[in-house]
Amino acid sequence: MRPLLHEVRHNPLLWLLVFVPVVLAAAKLKPEAHTLLFVLAVLAIVPLAGLLSHATESVASKTGDAVGGLLNATLGNLTELVIALTALKSGEYMLVKASIAGAIVTNTLFMLGAALLLGGLKHHVQEFNRAGARFQAGLLLLATIALLAPSVAGQRGVVASTEFTQRLSLGLAVLLIVAYGLGLLFSLKTHREVFASAQTTEEGEVPWPIGLALATLAGVTVLVALVSEVFVESVQKAAESFGMTPAFVGFVVVALVGAAAEMASAFSAARKNRLDLSVGIALGSAAQIALFVAPVLVLASYVIGPTPMDLVFWPAAVVMMFFATITAAFLTSGGRSAWFVGVLMLMVYLVFAMVLYLLPPQTQ
Amino acid sequence: MRPLLHEVRHNPLLWLLVFVPVVLAAAKLKPEAHTLLFVLAVLAIVPLAGLLSHATESVASKTGDAVGGLLNATLGNLTELVIALTALKSGEYMLVKASIAGAIVTNTLFMLGAALLLGGLKHHVQEFNRAGARFQAGLLLLATIALLAPSVAGQRGVVASTEFTQRLSLGLAVLLIVAYGLGLLFSLKTHREVFASAQTTEEGEVPWPIGLALATLAGVTVLVALVSEVFVESVQKAAESFGMTPAFVGFVVVALVGAAAEMASAFSAARKNRLDLSVGIALGSAAQIALFVAPVLVLASYVIGPTPMDLVFWPAAVVMMFFATITAAFLTSGGRSAWFVGVLMLMVYLVFAMVLYLLPPQTQ
Amino acid sequence: MRPLLHEVRHNPLLWLLVFVPVVLAAAKLKPEAHTLLFVLAVLAIVPLAGLLSHATESVASKTGDAVGGLLNATLGNLTELVIALTALKSGEYMLVKASIAGAIVTNTLFMLGAALLLGGLKHHVQEFNRAGARFQAGLLLLATIALLAPSVAGQRGVVASTEFTQRLSLGLAVLLIVAYGLGLLFSLKTHREVFASAQTTEEGEVPWPIGLALATLAGVTVLVALVSEVFVESVQKAAESFGMTPAFVGFVVVALVGAAAEMASAFSAARKNRLDLSVGIALGSAAQIALFVAPVLVLASYVIGPTPMDLVFWPAAVVMMFFATITAAFLTSGGRSAWFVGVLMLMVYLVFAMVLYLLPPQTQ
Lengths: 364, 364, 364
Known about the structure:
Strand order of the largest sheet of chain A: 1-2
Order of helices and strands of chain A: HHHHHEHHHHHHHEH
Number of helices of chain A: 13
Oligomer: homotrimer
Largest sheet of chain A: 2 strands, antiparallel
Distance between the termini of chain A: 49 Å
């Protein structure tokens, strides 16, 4: 525990950890004070994200960036999974789908774009292992095509039968999970050396012992999940009081805060010129949501949901996922980055955010 | 003939050649026994495909992989051309178009994906000449855009006049054939050296003399065509008795069996670490169907068809062709492959197959 | 002035400059002789394009190809901007939009394709700085997504409110101009060395002094703008007498002649094996129209137009922009070119031109 306490004492940001019990208590005592809960939840998530970042980097420094990135994405996305399961139980399938699509687009464009911009502002040109980026982009391309299929097939001028879309969604869910599992086998076992980092590690901070790092990762993830639930309950109402449309909230705000922990890690790695870790976290996180979280939710809906959930998305969401994947695949294919690459990704994200922000409410 | 007889005697698979006369006789005697004819036809196509594979490799060992791949694609696609011309004569344009689209998607995703997977299971990382892959992918991209044009232009909220789509299809057919001819000039004449193989040939089998190889190529192709016709006549009814939808049969089953000969060659080349040949066969075959077979059928429909055939495809077929091209272009652009690249291609193919398999019959 | 007069005396093409005053006079005297004015305008634009080409190369030889390409694109597109502003004043928004979309597609596919073909016919294989091509293709991808957004969002089964599309178009216009400005900062300032030319300059002609070159650039651009206006006024009627559809005229003919000056530069650079300059002019010009000219026109419409102009394009135009960008990004990503790469681009352009040429007039 010594290194953890040392970290807390010397990093003023972590003093915000005091808001974790505050927001959880406030959620019990004043569940209707949405705007207050929203602010408290964001204040509590920020230091938790910071702790996660340091713990993940400690693990990554022992296991190599590919595994570190995977670990990070897995634990970071527990948040999204827990939130979505809560929404699933109450049958709010539109919210689940919006948060899935939003998380894919946000991680692909905003998280990676901001990491490349932040890294590029410090380092003139940054290199990364393009085999890793290609691998994640390939997984995302498969997922985009799979999520597109039910929407396109359902638009053939004939109302597709519910049975058809449900059987197709179930089949696609199994297919995506199998692809994800094979992808793990490939990147962690048979071709592990392909994903080794190009750059040497220039570690400034002392890494924690592996046991403490893993325990912190697990414990903080649970806290993030708890706080995130308060956040999700309050964000809708709080956003309305700020004048945001529901589509914007589901797609952008929830996704941004839900991925705050991974963003802290991805940004910090980019500043330290460890772009492999950044790309692994951002694209790996998007791929994991598309190929693991989404299918698991479809399967879970048969057990805990009121009715089975299908994978038919709002057409504009599918178009956004497609363009996010194309943009990321194109911009990362060179294995080199400078600040403007990050700007381009953020601009594409801004186009989507602008559309969602301005959409007249009745057409959503 | 000696090497051919030697091959037949020592390769038990070729003993299946006995089914060639059997299926042709059975088709005369029992034309209504669809399921029997289907099984016999598949049993007869397998050894013919094997012979074609060896003959093509013998030619390829003398001419270089690029020319060998082209020869293979040309002769292998004679099958598809003969089948389609038969269907054209009887005016079954939907079947013709489904088999064109299915052949493009199947060759691009299934044939190439399975070749990369089979090769990758034997070799850790395989390299191939990416100039060749880029060239074929470029041709496919042009063909996809050309086949998309009449469908998109015909969907502008106004029913496009028949005259418009027919004139456009005729113009596009001529344009595609010209592009294909210029592509041959480029790859076989002016820039032949660009398509030279990267890897050294590690030939295990003794190549046949060129005369025998060419004669076998031609003779076996004719037999494949004859057997394939029996196959196509029986497959529809046989498939129904197995519970498959017509869309699935036209797009997947016909395409898989129609390309069996080329697949044997592509898979065997991949196992021998000659990926240039595999990529040349798979993408070259898809490009040839799109840029040569399809336009020839449009032109032929003016002579032998009841009415001119246009190039307006079922929208979902165009979407699948587009994504097959994008996927192949993206995954082959690096010039390196491992088993998971094959898995990704096969998974995209499986998504399409799943949609077609589950489609409710009334919406097809 | 000496080098300019020397050039005029020794280059018979420049004797066509006599048509510049002729066409301007004829436009005053015989404004209704459309076919005559059309022919005179084309004859006058050709030598002006030639002068622009030499002047631009003189500047480029002093500043490096990236800056030279930018200068060329900026001044070349003044023509398009002046034409579009004229159309804007009279509220002809369909013409403005058609000429924007047409200019993007024509510069991306025709200008670059023809340059690569012409260069490839002289040089066996040509190399270019792929960082430059990637940069421009990235800008084009962003612009395509931005121009697609209002069209897709407006098609969601609900008629989008005018207020929504206008606010979105205004926001996107500002976003695109900011992205363009940051792109200039990146390519001309912070990462200028990335865009340095790969090949050594093999200058045959004596470059002009910088002052004369800049003055010629400016003066000739104004003359091109004047003549182009006569051209645009006459082309519609003249085209009809040649049997062309309005869509074909707006998208193809106006774009081809409007970009004549830049084409002369791009083609001449390609013949001199300076592909960086060609790619910079062609893709840079397309990017500048998409990220600078189009947004400026939206902003200008609030000042000089009868009503604000939005960025909702004809769906087929958006599809063409998307495929033009994909094609250019794919074919230039290797950094190497041969004649067939140019053929492929020109063929894609021909597909689009064929659709527009054959479209029945009532559906446009």
